[in-house]
Amino acid sequence: GVGLGGMRMRFYGERVFTPTHEWIDKETGECGITKYALSKGEVVYLEMPEAGSVVQTGDEIGEVASVKSSSALIVPVGGTVTEVNSELEEDLTTLNAGANAESQSDSAWIYKLSPSDPLEFSDLMGEDEYGQFAAKLEDEES
């Protein structure tokens, strides 16, 4: 997904979402958390999984803590963690930038996953569906 600025937009169709506000890119296996989750407060602490971990759908493999709350990092589809974003160990700026992004999945990836069964992607939401889901939650909170 190399490209300048807006060029990356076309890859967004490859990103699918969980009801627990994670996204995964079907092409690259990159996983992150959504704009909705990031907009709840600046992330001050991130616990990431270890590369090489074999994980199941729904496993809690990390933690995301903001000044207001803390939530588990949930695995979107089962597989193997192949890489973690070491930049985030030093600096969470690129992650927190996602709170102001236009897209729900335009934030730094946290780890990469090699799915054991790509058919599991069909259980997840597309960008539009997740957008409606998040908007509904926003309404309920306000």
From TrEMBL:
Keyword entries, A-Z: Lipoyl, Transit peptide
Keyword Transit peptide attached: yes
Listed InterPro entries: 2-oxoA_DH_lipoyl-BS, Biotin_lipoyl, GCV_H, GCV_H/Fam206, Single_hybrid_motif
Domain of life per record: Eukaryota
Location of the Lipoyl-binding domain: 28-114
Keyword match Transit peptide: yes
GO cellular component, one term: mitochondrion
One of the protein's GO biological processes: glycine decarboxylation via glycine cleavage system
Family: Belongs to the GcvH family.
Name this polypeptide is given: Lipoyl-binding domain-containing protein
Lineage: Eukaryota, Amoebozoa, Discosea, Flabellinia, Dactylopodida
